[in-house]
Amino acid sequence: MLGMIYTEFLNMAEDTFGVDTTEDMIEKSLPNLPSKAVYTSVGNYSHKEIIVLVSQLSGITGMPITDLIKAFGTHLFGRFNDRYPEMFDSGEDAFAFLEKVEDYIHVNVRSLYPEAELPSFVCHRQGENTLIMDYRSQRPFATLAHGMILGCLGYFNEDGTVEGMELSADELNGFVAGFRFTITRHG
Ligand code: HEM
């Protein structure tokens, strides 16, 4: 996982829970962090380290892991907007944006960072107000995707709900993790 994901995560932890809690989280995680929590934005680190950090943060704060990852996804969406404004075309709506992640946004991410480990998305519309978005990955980050989808709805000021359902083993198509998101917008 790209170092910038880690630096964004540590920044969010510090802003939300303060320096002491963040240091406590790192301290408790250290035995399971090959990087020793020295992340540079251009480095690449095992995705397992973020799971270690989030688990410790959950233990310290009492917040469920899924809530923390979802909040991080929403935060990350905002930070990507700050960092890569050219990839956010303001003339569109949330559904059009989400449909571009696979063939445009993540394609651009891959050309900027050839070592990026990206998930696969397949989208299709179900009527005017529902978008189905299937997430598949070699990593278990569906909850992160969920948070990013919420961040996307917020960015476009759209009111909507996101429901996730795990894909069955024979729907994974060789991936390790899979989720179907049903995104419904209200008005
Ligand atoms: C709502 C839209 C988006 C969703 C749902 C989404 C989802 C994800 C997820 C779940 C991952 C973690 C990797 C995995 O699961 O295998 C990921 C990685 C990533 N995404 Fe997206 N993404 C979205 C939009 C964007 C945008 C707008 C950008 C940048 C402009 C971006 C850049 C990246 C980067 C840099 C990574 C990290 C790759 C790595 O660590 O190697 N994504 N994305």
Plain-language structure description:
- The structure is a single chain.
- With 187 residues, the protein is an alpha+beta fold.
- The chain has six helices and four strands, in the order H-H-H-H-H-E-E-H-E-E.
- A four-stranded antiparallel beta sheet has the order 1-2-4-3, covered by helices on one side.
- Helix 1 crosses helix 2.
- The site of protoporphyrin IX containing FE has 24 residues, from helix 4, helix 5 and helix 6.
Q: Tell me about the largest β-sheet.
A: 4 strands, antiparallel
Q: Can you count the helices?
A: 6
Strand content: 15-25%
Structural class: alpha+beta
CATH class value of the largest domain: Alpha Beta
Give the overall form. Answer: globular
- Overall average pLDDT: 96
What fold name stands as the CATH topology of the largest domain? H-NOX domain
Low-confidence region ranges: none
Q: For the record, what is the CATH homologous superfamily label of the largest domain? A: H-NOX domain
Radius of gyration: 17 Å
Overall helicity? 40-55%
Strand order of the largest sheet: 1-2-4-3
Query: In the residues, how many domains can be counted?
Result: 2
Order of helices and strands: HHHHHEEHEE
**What is the number of beta strands?**
4
